[in-house]
Write a structure and sequence with these properties.
The complex is a heterodimer. Helix content of chain A is 76%, strand content 1%. Chain A is flat, with a radius of gyration of 27 Å. Chain B is an all-alpha fold. The chains are: A mainly alpha, B mainly alpha. The interface between A and B is medium-sized, with 33 and 24 residues.
């Protein structure tokens, strides 16, 4: 009882007034800090909204003229102002899809090697080397693709593949067409090398955060290295792995220069993996300088579609992660 | 309890194949990096000379003309 009274009566009025003043000051600082950080995050949102609105406003004449048909029209006639996005969408999705098909297994292999089997002294130099691939500018990939990779690809891969598989039923049509080294497949392969370091770096980082106790427990139970990766590391890091893949997909969908150099830039629907095609980003890069009126608006419409495709892909990835977590019971 | 040798061998082979795949993936990644760097340095360094940086682009106009005729105005 006496100690309670002591606690209640001892602090002087002056001290408590100081404390109130400090608390008031801190509350004010917190308030401004909160508002300023909120303003910064809203600024990002405002910039995003501004980009969407400006894309949509500039694209409106095209959407007004062609409506939803714009998505599956294949015409690209600048003189008669007839446009469609189907060829560019197919080229974008196909090249990005091929790139991911090649890059994801390779990136997984690289990440497994760097985290599980690589000698410790070699991990850093090899990891840095793979990250160095990400530092190569995309135009260098494009130049490399056009001047070095495409001729070799034509002579040593396209021709033999066409001879071997071109006559096969069901899949033969995929390997038809001219074998000049450029086309959807060449663009996909160059893109795969481009996105490989991004996906591999994310996978390696998330593999490294797997708690050692989980790994060691699995090894203790007699699991092989591959079983530890497949049954412990991969399920634990599923979210990060999907995030890394989506990062790669986002880059592949929006990549411009590397694709523009090797995709062939032909405004016709690709009929095989060797066919030249075009992508949304390469159409924008090739034609924006000379565009006017409806052509200009159409390029904005393509940009808007690229934005929507990327958004849908990322939303699907997020949904996949949520569904996987729900299935796990988290 | 008797050990299932067949299952053990299968698991070991699977693990070995997986690890071989990961090493091959690493080798492919490094090979691509070295290939790009080799091409870049071999072609780039051989083309470097002291005139490269101060050099200006030649005038696009044909001889005698004041300026080039743009393709859209021809």
């Amino acid at each position: 009882m006496s100690s309670q009274n002591f606690m209640r009566e001892e602090p002087s009025q002056a001290v408590s007034a100081d404390m109130v003043a400090v608390a008031k000051k801190q509350r004010l600082q917190d308030f401004f800090f909160h508002r300023i950080t909120q303003a910064f995050s809203l600024l990002v949102l405002a910039a995003l909204l501004g980009i969407i609105i400006s894309l949509f406003v500039n694209a409106w004449p095209t959407f007004q003229k062609f409506g939803f048909n714009f998505l599956w029209r294949v015409e690209w006639d600048i003189v008669n102002a007839e446009f469609g996005a189907a060829i560019a969408i197919v080229g974008t999705v196909a090249s990005a899809g091929i790139a991911l098909l090649l890059a994801v297994p390779l990136a997984f292999g690289v990440a497994v090697f760097l985290t599980e089997t690589c000698p410790v002294w070699l991990r850093r130099p090899l990891g840095t080397s793979i990250e160095l691939l990400a530092a190569v500018p995309s135009i260098i990939y494009g130049m490399f693709g056009l001047f070095v990779f495409a001729p070799l690809f034509a002579d040593y891969l396209q021709v033999p593949l066409q001879k071997l598989l071109g006559g096969m039923p069901l899949v033969g049509f995929l390997f038809g067409g001219a074998t000049n080294g450029m086309g959807i497949l060449a663009a996909g392969i160059v893109l795969a090398f481009m996105v490989l370091p991004f996906v591999a770096a994310v996978m390696r980082d998330v593999f490294e955060i797997t708690p050692p106790i989980l790994r060691e427990s699995a090894y203790g139970l007699g699991c092989t290295t591959w079983e530890v990766v497949r049954k412990v590391v991969l399920p634990y890091t599923q979210k990060g792995v999907i995030g890394g893949i989506m990062l790669g997909l986002g880059r592949a969908l929006g990549e411009t220069m590397a694709v523009t150099f090797v995709i062939g830039n032909a405004n016709r629907m690709p009929t095989s993996l060797f066919s030249p095609g075009t992508s949304i980003a390469s159409v924008l890069a090739n034609e924006f300088g000379e565009a006017a009126d409806l052509h200009f608006s159409t390029l904005f419409a393509l940009g808007f579609l690229l934005f929507v495709i990327t958004f849908v892909v990322l939303a699907m990835a997020k949904m996949m992660i949520l569904r996987a977590e729900k299935a796990k019971g988290n | 309890m008797e050990m299932n040798n067949q299952l053990y061998t299968k698991r070991r082979i699977t693990s070995m194949l997986g690890l071989m795949f990961s090493m091959a993936a690493m080798a492919v990644g490094l090979a691509v990096l070295l290939w790009i760097l080799y091409v870049l340095f071999a072609n780039g360094l051989s083309a470097l000379d002291s005139n490269l940086l101060p050099a200006t682009r030649p005038h696009p106009a044909p001889k005698g003309a004041a300026c080039a005729t743009p393709s859209w105005a021809a």
